[in-house]
Specification:
Length: 259
């Protein structure tokens, strides 16, 4: 398991929490690699089963006009290769249009269905709140992904009467323990994971998404600098690289039904 530095505000104690399955929802191919590939690499190395659900095909991404006709196929292949570098092979797609993702009941139902199928200990997704300090974190699809997953996690996933057709298919209600957010406003981040040993794996995964990076060297400098800044904010030793999360306890020892 990754080494965690947890502020007093975080409800998650990595030394005592047992994590066996994680399900990650992001808006586009490459979002998960920027946000959490280091943590995911550490999880899979420790035997945790990690699955991805990419909610759009990333069809509006890229910079080269020559890629337009094959951009969806290209980005799916990039995500497959990047995921494999951090130990993930189970990848799902919702096939929503890039730039048009909305937290509709059609999308939420698909999220509920996948969570009930996989029954993870942690659902990881993008933050539904806009980040005014770094607006690029808050692409409208990112916000929509976070909102759709949050609405799915509570109350629909654990409500046996929500989307009853799913229960009829044998997908029973499920109480999710933890919800983790990436791309969070800094003020919301309450949990930091030391990924110093996974920095190169994370960067290798990001580099695979070459269709999205007109300046790979510049991208690497920014990512390294941000991870070091996260380590400093977490109070970790100088030179430590970290990934930052907003962790929410959904169902734990302090929660009761309906509250």
């Amino acid at each position: 398991m990754p080494t965690d530095s947890t502020s007093a505000r975080s409800p998650f104690d990595a030394s005592s929490e047992r994590v066996e399955r994680v399900l990650c929802f992001t808006a586009h191919p490459d979002d998960i690699d920027f946000g959490a590939a280091g943590t995911i690499a550490a999880w899979t190395a420790a035997g945790v089963e990690v699955s991805y659900c990419i909610m759009t095909d990333g069809d509006a991404g890229g910079f080269d006009p020559a890629d337009r006709e094959r951009i969806t196929e290209l980005r799916v292949e990039e995500q497959r290769r990047a995921a494999a570098l951090v130990g993930v092979t189970d990848i799902h797609y919702l096939h929503e249009l890039d730039g048009y993702l909305e937290p509709t009941h059609g999308v939420i139902k698909q999220v509920v269905k996948l969570i009930r199928q996989i029954r993870p200990d942690i659902v990881l997704t993008m933050h539904p709140e806009r980040n005014w300090d770094r607006l690029q974190k808050s692409h409208p699809d990112h916000l929509a992904a976070g909102e759709a997953v949050t609405r799915a996690v509570y109350p629909a996933v654990e409500n046996p009467f929500a989307y009853p057709e799913l229960a009829a298919e044998g997908l029973a209600a499920y109480k999710l323990p933890w919800l983790w957010f990436i791309s969070s406003p800094d003020a919301r981040e309450n949990h930091f994971v030391d990924v110093s040993d996974q920095v190169e794996a994370k960067l290798d995964a990001i580099r695979v998404h070459a269709s999205q990076h007109p300046d790979i060297a510049g991208m690497e400098r920014v990512v390294r600098r941000m991870m070091l800044a996260n380590g400093e904010r977490a109070g970790l030793p100088a030179g430590t690289s970290a990934e930052a999360f907003h962790v929410v306890s959904v169902n734990g020892s302090s929660t009761i039904a309906g509250f």
